[in-house]
Amino acid sequence: MTAAEAMRHGRLGCRRNAETERTMMEAALDVTVKLLLELHIPIMVSAHSKRNTSRPVFTAHERALAKSHWSSSSARLHRDSFLPFGSCGLCLNIARDPVSCRRGDIFCRECALSNILAQKKDIKRTQKARAVADEEAAKLKAYEDEQEQARAVQDFELTQAGLDRKKKGHATKTSDEKPSAMADESNALALVPATKRKFELDQDELDRIAHEDKTKARKALEEEKAAKPHLPSFWTPSLTPDAQSSKLPPVTKKDKTVPTCPASSTENTHPITMQNLITINFTEEETPKGKQRACPSCLKMLTNASHPMMAKQCGHVLCHSCVKQFMVPPAKKPCAEDDPPLTCYVCDVPLTSKSQKQDVASGSSIPGLVALQSEGTGFSAHGGNTVERSSVAFQC
Fold it and tell me: Could you tell me which residues belong to the region Disordered (predicted)?
């Protein structure tokens, strides 16, 4: 027998011994489990077997498919997902006859006016619906007040006639329960010395008595309504369920009174009106690709990375570097009262008045200028826009 055959026989022998030991261990485990079940002894299961996160019936492809469709995911947008500078925030095309709001969001004039008119129509419709709902609530409140007043008058008439307004069984139950507590109250009252109290009847006392009567009448009506059997006949007009029957308090939703900018976020909304729209005057340069919008100072194409800024008075747009170089005075230079105001680089129109304070320290808050909103560039340090989607997690 050669050395290779000896090694092969040795491996086969070790494998047979391992299989024999595994079979013996499984048989011993089965016997132990049967014995524990016969003796009604609880079997302690490991924590991992109780988890519902690793099911053998799913494949890796099915797990990945479920994760992509059912779990919360987020992704960072790359350059191809960003709109070019000067795109409309509504139609997503290059803005035609561009206008801007006070915060620098760019729109087509037609898109902006159409959106403002649509929002105004929606506001009017919401106000009309709210007025109808308030009228219905007032009618319901008046009806409930009439019922409470009628019930209070009925209880007063029954009391004057010498009849008990409550049921006899309920009265007997209330009179017989807790006799020791009633005796304690009588003893406590007997210990208090009798004092003469002056009778005073003013408007506050009358309001308090009327409020107590209404509260008692409302409680009696609610008890009678709760005692009636509730039939599931929702098709019957008298038993149609109503949203007002809920015990939850009404949700007070703040109505929108003015149109809001469609490009603003839900956390930080700002209004937009036709009067506040600013016409943008872009400087266009002829290129092999056609007319493109450029900075009138350096003649570079305006992109998302150039941080363009617009003058509020005239609407001319320059890149941020040219604004800091030609339009904003140095930060170290003291600002005197007789200094001329800031003017536009193109048309020399004053951006601010002399009385207005010039904040030169922060580059984004230059008076008279608006930073036009632009999307990212694709670099990680600038324009890190991410999209998120939250959904129900499906474990498999």
Answer: 156-185, 217-269
- Which range of residues forms the domain containing residue 262? 86-154+254-280
Extract the tokens encoding 341: 């105001």
Could you tell me which residues are beta bridge partners of residue 286? 291
Distance CA 108, CA 371 (A): 18
> Measuring CA to CA, how many Å separate 73 from each of 53, 59, 70, 208, 266?
18, 21, 9, 59, 20
Residue 49 located in a structural domain: no
Q: Count of H helices and E strands in the chain?
A: 8, 10
- Rounded Cα distance between 385 and 380, Å, is 9
Tens digit of each residue's pLDDT (9 = 90 or more) over 221-235:
777 776 666 656 667
Number of domains the chain is built from: 1
Give the tokens for residue 30: 């089965």
Residue 128 within any structural domain of the chain? yes
Contact 88, 107 (CB under 8 A): yes
| Residue 123 domain-assigned (yes or no) | yes
Q: Is residue 110 part of a domain?
A: yes
